[in-house]
């Protein structure tokens, strides 16, 4: 079956063991990660705190740190997918901390597998899961414990792609799916006025929004191996 956890605050109510968890932070952490792998990054270590990220930076990793949608001083990379469309990224090992996305990944460690999902790699994730025997749970990163629309819509999109192979576990899966069915024909306008879009727009970040809502751009499936995300061949 496929389950949806609408925010990491509710994770204790869901079962992660024996489950493949797909973490989604559409704006923008998981869209960044997917883009980074599409542009040839070797690995990404997701960490919860700025201090841990600095430790990896001191060991020679490229480091990305974001809080409240802005780059933290002293780090090379910010949290825009466009930052990763660069030759210096090819083959690099990156350490990354973000307000919600990397935190959600670090909270999922006891799952059978942790995958990184976004609209950009929706089809690759769906194809990979078609051939798996485990239950699936989408973990929406949300915003500081709150539910958000964009991650819920991604969950609904994955439910939609998998609905012939996986039963919807409970109402959170049905709700996400219905929301996606309602909004899918024009996600940018369906999401207008949502919280993180307003937050990003206040910071003048518009092109990331349009970019992150594109479906099926990249054939990559990032998976957590030990403490690092790597790109799995599908
Ligand atoms: C996060 O992890 O909270 C987000 O990616 C924030 C952002 O848009 O930079």
From TrEMBL:
Q: What is this protein called?
A: Probable 2-phosphosulfolactate phosphatase
EC number(s) reported in the record = 3.1.3.71
Q: Which class of enzymes does this protein belong to?
A: hydrolase
Q: Gene for this protein? A: comB
**Claim: Magnesium is one of the keywords in the record:** yes
Q: Which InterPro entries match?
A: ComB-like, ComB-like_sf
- Is Repeat included in the keywords of this UniProt record? no
Sorted keywords for this record are: Hydrolase, Magnesium
Cofactor(s) the protein needs: Mg(2+)
Q: Which GO terms describe its molecular function?
A: 2-phosphosulfolactate phosphatase activity; magnesium ion binding; sulfopyruvate decarboxylase activity
Reaction(s) the record says it catalyses: (2R)-O-phospho-3-sulfolactate + H2O = (2R)-3-sulfolactate + phosphate
What the record says about family reads: Belongs to the ComB family.
